[in-house]
Amino acid sequence: MSARVSLRRNEEGFTLTELLAAFAILGFTITAIYTFYLSGLLSWNRSIERMEYQQTVRISLDTMIRELRYAREVEIAAENLIAFKIMGDTRIYRFRQSGETLLYAQHTAGNAHIASNVIALGITGLSFSIDQTSTVTITVTAGSGSQRTTISSSIRPRNIL
Asked: N or C: which terminus of the chain carries fewer CB neighbours within 10 A?
């Protein structure tokens, strides 16, 4: 009986060196894909944050303009505080910044506080100015650094005395 010894000279499969090279290439590819994904995700989050700041500033500005439109007396008490009265009303209304909050407050004619409403959060800057024609310019800023958003607008109250 002859022993069958079968030696295959052309064995199929990969060598250890080929496997290590394949895994190294796979690892570099996965790392590159993850890096692109992560940078895209961070960019997406920054743009969402910037959009939220823009909306906050726009809504704040729209609210102040809507209320100031019917003012009959306007006084800028500080750079970030404006007081005004509305025709037919004895109360004094104020927009002011407190920390990073925009507040809309009501006071009696004797300056007793009645109520405050939060208009917006995340406001980092608020300024008012008034010119000779009684036009009020409002500048609102939200965010900081590259996310900083600033919008200005002007209004001339209809009932100004």
From this structure: N
